[in-house]
Write a structure and sequence with these properties.
Strand order of the largest sheet: 1-2-6-7-5-3-4
Shape: globular
Radius of gyration: 20 Å
Number of helices: 6
Number of strands: 9
Mean pLDDT: 85
Oligomer: single chain
Distance between the termini: 62 Å
Order of helices and strands: HHEEHEHEEEEHEEH
Low-confidence stretches: 1-29
Structural class: alpha/beta
Length: 266
């Protein structure tokens, strides 16, 4: 009986230790911006052969023809709204996540219901469109509704943070990065010479749906000053005031929420 008690105590202690380590890991990165977390998770990713090409660091595309196209303006990308004015979006969380990891994802999904007409709900038999949330190589999502089951990758190694979940879900709802907005040059100066060779396309402007909202340095979709830098020098600088803080968001901003509600006419 004594041996059993000791073994049980050791198992419980080990479990507590694992939870403590996991908690410490999240605490240590809790204040990092979403852009920094995404860069860290995706910088050295080794995708499987069946994974999509990424642009902008974490935006999945189906073909090279989609590289400079915004699906919300080129073909429409919104999820269907129902007669009650809400958009119900099915999702399926793959079973390779722990209960704690699932809770982080679920919290991100549920955060939209209190600020918009978006309602994420579990997948049901008969659903023809849904988000398949999987731990693939890095963090990424397609922009907008694609049809069928579309992957939202939230790797267990580096992607399971509240703001990161929100960021990828906003992509799935139809939003691009803030620094690719059509009016970007009025607010951000891009330092092309500092960008990693071959990565310049990540800063090309596209015909985005800005919904009449102002450029938002605090958007969870705005990358930070050194994104894709090859020499530790800034790739982006706010104008006219270069000292303005930007790309530091850890969750959706008021403008992110406003833009979402305008796009879906909530």
């Amino acid at each position: 009986m004594l041996v059993f008690s000791v073994v049980a105590l050791l198992l419980v202690s080990s479990s507590w230790a694992e939870e403590d380590v996991a908690g410490l890991e999240e605490d240590s990165t809790r204040e990092l911006s979403v852009g920094r977390l995404l860069d860290r998770a995706n910088r050295d990713r080794t995708p499987d052969l069946d994974e999509p090409t990424l642009i902008g660091g974490d935006i999945a595309i189906k073909s090279e023809a989609d590289r400079n196209a915004d699906p919300c303006t080129s073909r429409g990308c919104l999820w269907q709204k129902w007669s009650d004015g809400k958009a119900y979006i099915p999702y399926y969380i793959n079973n390779h996540y722990s209960s704690r990891e699932q809770a982080i994802i679920t919290r991100g999904l549920e955060s939209f219901s209190s600020v918009s007409c978006i309602r994420f709900r579990p997948y049901q038999d008969g659903d023809v469109e849904w988000l398949s949330i999987e731990s693939r190589s890095g963090c990424y999502s397609y922009v907008g509704r694609q049809g069928g089951g579309q992957t939202v990758s939230l790797s267990r190694q580096g992607c399971l943070y509240h703001g990161t979940v929100q960021h990828e879900l906003l992509h799935a709802l139809g939003f691009n990065h803030e620094q690719t907005r059509s009016d970007r040059d009025n607010h951000i100066r891009v330092h092309w010479d500092n960008i990693i060779d071959g990565m310049e396309y990540n800063f090309y402007k596209i015909d985005t749906l800005n919904q009449g909202t102002p450029y938002d340095y605090s958007s969870v979709m705005q990358y930070e000053r050194y994104a894709f830098s090859k020499n530790n020098r800034p790739t982006m600088e706010p104008i006219p005031n270069s000292s303005v803080s930007f790309g530091q968001a850890t969750q959706m901003s008021r403008n992110d929420i406003d833009r979402l509600n305008r796009l879906y006419k909530c």
